[in-house]
Design the sequence.
């Protein structure tokens, strides 16, 4: 464990290490909440990005309405962390998972729990699991809207209406709204068509008078297309009940230097919604030492697939520090990551770069989820890269 106020720049932090730059983190928390407030949205950020009670607590404190989970066991952790509203953005399938869900409802009577359904079989499984249980009648279900060739979810408004009718007829369940994850699409035009079918389903279910909650929840994923998601949710307003548009963006918290940076640039370019000033800032970095300069034009950093994401792009070399020489990180020019092994990163280095054995190098990442899940603890650092705290992660499913 590194001492508080240990300096990464002075080589006082054991590397490799994942760090979160606190000034950028604080900015992103405030930025996304400001966006939600300005557009009448509620935030339920997807906690699977970080699985960190400390970071989720910061999101709730900043104004988030609730948090999103991927599995009933994660929902139980959230409830233990005193998160009052939980959306399980998934189908709950199998005896043990259904028992876990029933246990969350029974053991945390104040928790407001939602999950997804996309079939009458799924409705029946939930209803049977909760029949006679202490939580019967409290589980709120959202109809999941899918798209052809993509993930789970009904494929048409007609299917949505049939599943909604089954859910509304089940005494153990409450039909609370409609859900979509538009991020399965790589391009905004496909996402837009998917979102249009989502709005059609909301209107059809509302017209049939099937929603059972005081307000209708319309919820979208929204990390890559949160502009389109916001506009569609607000346009899908129920004519008979108040609407609660819930945005489940998770990766805004630390942003990145890859897929979400590109996605945000697309949002800004589309100009569909007003954005707060300043944009989102990359806050998550992974630092390591240079352990070898075996050839001209090549350097080997002491980190690999076990430490940093590579599923959505290779790490981006950002910063160079030579302990004893540099008082602050220096920007790296022209250095790229060629490939990763488990514990090694092979870098291509231009002739003018003076990277040497023992130097520190800071990497930006693409896709925060698959960097967070490699660390049980990440350091919070200030603008001078001094350790000012830490956050834990809890990814295991027992």
Sequence:
């Amino acid at each position: 464990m590194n001492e508080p106020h240990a300096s990464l720049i002075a080589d006082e932090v054991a590397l490799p290490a994942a760090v979160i730059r606190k000034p950028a983190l604080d900015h992103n928390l405030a930025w996304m909440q400001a966006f939600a407030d300005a557009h009448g949205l509620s935030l339920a950020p997807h906690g699977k990005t970080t699985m960190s009670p400390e970071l989720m607590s910061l999101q709730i404190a900043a104004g988030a309405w609730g948090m999103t989970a991927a599995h009933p066991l994660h929902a139980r952790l959230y409830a233990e962390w005193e998160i009052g509203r939980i959306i399980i953005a998934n189908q709950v399938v199998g005896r043990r998972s259904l028992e876990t869900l029933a246990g969350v409802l029974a053991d945390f009577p104040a928790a407001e729990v939602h999950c997804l359904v996309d079939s009458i079989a799924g409705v029946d499984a939930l209803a049977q699991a909760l029949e006679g249980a202490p939580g019967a009648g409290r589980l709120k279900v959202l109809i999941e809207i899918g798209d052809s060739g993509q993930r789970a979810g009904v494929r048409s408004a007609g299917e949505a209406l049939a599943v909604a009718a089954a859910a509304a007829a089940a005494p153990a369940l409450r039909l609370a709204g409609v859900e979509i994850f538009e991020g399965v699409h790589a391009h905004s035009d496909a996402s837009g068509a998917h979102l249009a079918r989502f709005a059609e389903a909301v209107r059809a279910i509302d017209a049939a008078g099937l929603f059972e909650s005081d307000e209708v929840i319309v919820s979208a994923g929204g990390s890559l297309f949160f502009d389109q998601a916001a506009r569609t949710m607000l346009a899908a307003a129920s004519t008979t009940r108040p609407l609660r548009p819930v945005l489940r963006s998770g990766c805004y918290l630390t942003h990145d230097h890859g897929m979400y940076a590109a996605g945000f640039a697309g949002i800004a370019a589309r100009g569909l919604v007003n954005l707060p000033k300043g944009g989102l800032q990359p806050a998550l970095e992974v630092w390591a030492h240079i352990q070898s300069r075996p050839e001209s034009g090549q350097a080997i950093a002491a980190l690999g697939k076990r430490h940093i994401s590579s599923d959505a792009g290779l790490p981006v070399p950002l910063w160079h520090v030579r302990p004893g020489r540099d008082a602050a990180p220096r920007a790296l020019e022209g250095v790229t990551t060629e490939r990763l092994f488990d514990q090694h990163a092979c870098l291509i280095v231009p002739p003018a770069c003076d990277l040497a054995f023992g130097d520190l190098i800071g990497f930006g990442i693409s896709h925060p989820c698959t960097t967070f899940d490699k660390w049980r603890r990440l350091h919070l650092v200030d603008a001078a890269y001094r350790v000012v705290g830490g956050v834990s992660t809890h990814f295991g499913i027992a």
Q: What stands out?
A: DSSP finds ten helices and 18 strands in the chain. The chain has two domains: 25-262, 279-392.
